[in-house]
Amino acid sequence: MSLSGSRIRIITCITPIWLLMLVPSVKTIFAETLSNEAQISILTVDSGKEIWTVFGHTAIRIHDPINNIDEVYNYGTFDFDQNRFYLKFLRGNLIYYLSRDSFDHFLKTYTAENRTIWEQQLLFQSEVLQKLYDSLSTNYHSGNRDYYYNFFEDNCTTRILNLIIAFASEKYSEEYLLQPVNSTYRKELKPILLNRPWIAFGVNLLLGRYGDQHINLRQSMFLPVTLMKKLPGTGWTTEGATIYKAKTAPSQAKEFFMPITIFWIVAFALAWEKISKVTNQRFSDKIDIIVYSIAGTFGIFLFFLKIYSLHPSLQTNMNLLWANPLLVIYAFAINFRWKKITFAIALLYSTILFFILITWNKIPQKFPLEIMPLLLILAFRSMNRIFRFVNIKE
Questions:
Q1: 126 CB neighbour count, 10 Å cutoff
Q2: In the chain, what are the domain boundaries?
Q3: What is the pLDDT of residues 258-279, one digit of tens each?
Q4: Can you give the pTM of this predicted structure?
Q5: Which of 98, 129, 225, 299 could form a disulfide with 323 if both were Cys (CB 3.0 to 4.6 A apart)?
Q6: By three-state DSSP, how is residue 251 classified?
Q7: Tens digits of residue pLDDT in 361-370
Q8: What is the torsion angle, in degrees rounded to the nearest 10, for the CA atoms of residue 48, residue 53, residue 54 and residue 60?
Q9: 79, 76, 276, 245: which is closest to 159 by C-alpha?
Q10: Exposure string (b/e) for 53-69, b if CB count within 10 Å is 16 or more?
């Protein structure tokens, strides 16, 4: 992968110099001339079980029975063996690329995963379909094959949407695509994550204010199933026809260990420990040290994403208000009994927590409901420290 990747980057650098001189031959080398019976369609694959398949998949099919062409182009391919894979994913410079496969293999792959597949025919003239096919073939054989993945704005679905728009100039309706949809990126994710509480919690926790901005119709089509449902309204495609229906999965009991349940149990346990005084003060201090160290460490991670990541969706995260890196200093102050520093941080932190709780529905970023018990217990234990300090002073 690394060798071919290097080759692709070299081609990218030199392409602008000679591509215009070779445009006639590019088509000859890379793409066949499609017959009048050729069809190009959008393939949509429903959610899968693995975490990277939760949001579904979009691909594009070229089918020409006369020329014996039946292949699928896919912008959602990545290589797990890339160096520093997870760091690159968080950074926003993980390389995804355009791949090509036979339709038969594509179908076998996703039917084996028991994922529903839909197909929508593009309603373009033959000459437009040819240009679209030429573009796909050229990109597949050139440096344009690689791109940096962006969850909301540059993924396997938005790439295909942009391709369709580029070749639909005579049918392009800017007004239609730019109309507001009374939604946000976070709201668009909610139906998919409804039955995946832990993934939903993680996504909502990491997603900053960017996820709560109001979006238009075009922006809302970053998810495969959403694109499938809304494309027919443009007049560019047919309605989605099911070519494989997933077998009904065995019914599963509702997950008991949901985030909200676990966090309420933890909150009540920590509150009971303080109220009942079943432990001595030093042991209670150790619990506070652990609790605030965890919150502060998570804050350091959020701050790291803010300064390290190129993903707009991971920046300006207001969860830093309660998961503040300074809580690590708070934990140190408790451990070393720096009473004045502990009091000052406890007073400031309690104020911030109560501000969040009071203005919950007015804050421009939507916080996950699951953190409510965490905020309450963090505020309760900080207030307890304030009262202890005041009582000692008296």
A1: 13
A2: 2-244, 259-393
A3: 999 999 999 999 999 999 888 8
A4: 0.84
A5: 299
A6: coil
A7: 999 999 999 9
A8: -90
A9: 76
A10: bbbbbbbbbbbbeeeeb
